[in-house]
Every structure is written in C-alpha cells, then in structure tokens.
Amino acid sequence: MTYLWIGIALVGVTASVVAIRSFRPAPLPAPEPWTGPLPGASPPGDMTIHQLPTGTYDSRAALAYRGGSFSDVRKFAATAVLVRHPAGDLLIDAGFGSDVDAHLATLPSFQRTPHHLGVTVRDQLRAGDYDLAGLRGVVITHAHWDHVSGLADLDVPIWMNEAEARYVERDKGAAVFRDVARGREIHRYTFDGPPYLGFPASHDVHGDGSVVLVEAGGHTDGSVVVFVTLPDGRRFAFIGDLTWQVEGVTLRAERPGPLRMLADVQPAKVRDGLLRIIALRDRVHVVPAHDVHAYDPIPHWVVSDRRVG
Ligand SMILES: [Zn+2]
C-alpha cells in the first residue's frame, strides 16, 4: 500500500515537473505581417557590410526572453557592423574597446558576468588596412556600455539624435558613454524623413535609401533601428536591444517582466517597436544586437578571435 502511495506521489511530482518544464508563457499577439511595398532604395554597386565581433558576455536565456531556460547560457554578442558606402562609411555600434575591463568594473556586480574579449574594432580595422579617414562616424543604436565601449579607441564623430542626447545627460546607464564620448564630436541627426516600414519617422543617411535610421525609443530615450539595403536587394534591420535574442522575434517572446522594468525606460514603447519588427520578419533579416547567430549572413571584416597585443 505504501509503495502505491509513493508511486502515486512520484507520478504527481513527475507530472508537475513536466508541466513546469513545458510551460510556455503566451507570446505577444501576432501583428499583421507587412505586405505593403518595401521603401525604394538604390544602393551603389560597391556598397558592402561587414561584422566586427569584439567579444561576448554570458547571460541566461531565462533572463533574455520570456520562456527562456535558466540552464541555457547564451553568449551575448558585442559586435560592430561596418557599412561601406562611397559617400562615407559608418559603423553601427562600437563593441568592446581597449578599456573594456574598466568599463565592466563600473557595472553593479550582478551585471558583471563571465565574458570573452576579442579584438577591438580599431585593431580589426587596422589589421584589414582600413583607412580611418573613410569613416564618417559611429551610429549608436543606443548609449549603453556594451554598444559604446569601443568608441574610446575611435576618434570619429558619434552619431546620435536629440532624445538620446537627453538620455546620456541624465541616466546612470550612460556613465560609460559619458566617459568615452568626452572630447568626441557629436553628429546630431534628426528624423527629418517620412514614416518607414511602420516606424513613425526616419533619417535617410545617404539620400539613396541604403541606410535609414528610424526612431524606436523605449529601451533608452533615443534608441534606433538601422535599416540597411544592399545592392543585391537584401535588407537588414539592426534593432539594437529591442530584444536581446532572436526569440524575441521568432517566438514573439519579449523580455521577462522584471527585466523590462529594469532595462527599458519605457517598456510599452519597446513592445511597440518589437511588434513592428515582428511584422517585417519575412521581408527583412533582423539582427538583435546581442544575438551571435543573427550576424551569420554578414561576412567578417577580418577573421580573428583573439585580442591583438
Ligand atoms: Zn545591449
């Protein structure tokens, strides 16, 4: 009899564990897919993009998106993207720079997770004989440390909008930015263009539709999405931290509630932006800044995985 009760109890516990393990929080409601025309673009034939990974840091999937597993440790990318264009090249974000250890030390201890340091953007550009005179600036998706650390090594203008300029003045999340931006030229752009793929306003950098910045605030005040269209017709959306991993798009799984409150200045706006991106997922290749594999279709600038010197 006792064995029977133990057996029943075991079945009950097993069923509970299975139920908990297979629990999936409800995804965000599916937005209508974008079926309209894609905005016109005439990128020059010699325009190219390249990825420059500068390192990774560890984070658990459970903290990255709703329904993620606690035992699934993700390598969060700190990767810059070089967009080469005859009218002047741009970097999207700057990755980890040579002072990254000092930048990590400024974080609260719970945010300092194991990390791997690769080669800085500056050293990768040098290794590829890149002429820095061709670099018009670094467009930051937003001003958090893991996107701007490498600015310290690059004496080129930092492209940012009015709302982000306000954010960096007041928010403790921009402490590293304030440090690395000291003495740097700020190139202030405005969203002077029309709505773009569901986003309310845009800025067409070269005037040919090849690189278009859109307003997607909420993670920080002035966070942006950078749309890039290549001469072969492929389109990319560099969405910064609208979601930290691609499951934000593929599973419509936003950040877990407490993390939304912690990480986003306006969580509801982040959700709006994420839904706009989800509506585009069949038309545009979406690159969440920290998803290592989202960069797979983008060729490396130089291949190296160890810090020089
Ligand atoms: Zn980030």
SSE layout and pairings?
Layout: H1 2-21, E1 48-60, H2 61-64, E2 73-84, E3 89-92, H3 100-105, E4 115-117, H4 121-127, E5 135-139, H5 145-148, E6 158-161, H6 162-170, H7 175-180, E7 186-189, E8 202-204, E9 211-215, E10 224-229, E11 235-238, H8 247-250, H9 257-263, H10 267-278, E12 285-287
For the sheet with most strands, the description reads:
7 strands, mixed
CATH superfamily: Ribonuclease Z/Hydroxyacylglutathione hydrolase-like
Number of strands: 12
Named once each, the bound ligands are: zinc ion
At CATH level 2, the architecture is 4-Layer Sandwich
The percent of residues in helical segments reads 25-40%
Provide a descriptive summary of the structure in words:
- It contains ten helices and twelve strands.
- With 309 residues, it is of the alpha/beta class.
- It has a single domain (40-295), classed as Metallo-beta-lactamase, Chain A (4-Layer Sandwich), CATH 3.60.15.10.
- The strands form two sheets. Strands 4-1-2-3-5-6-7 form a seven-stranded mixed beta sheet. A five-stranded mixed beta sheet has the order 8-9-10-11-12, with no helix packed on it.
- A hairpin with an 8-residue loop joins strand 9 and strand 10 (224-229).
- The mean pLDDT is 92.
- The chain binds zinc ion (ZN).
- Zinc ion is lined by residues 144, 146-147, 241, 289-290.
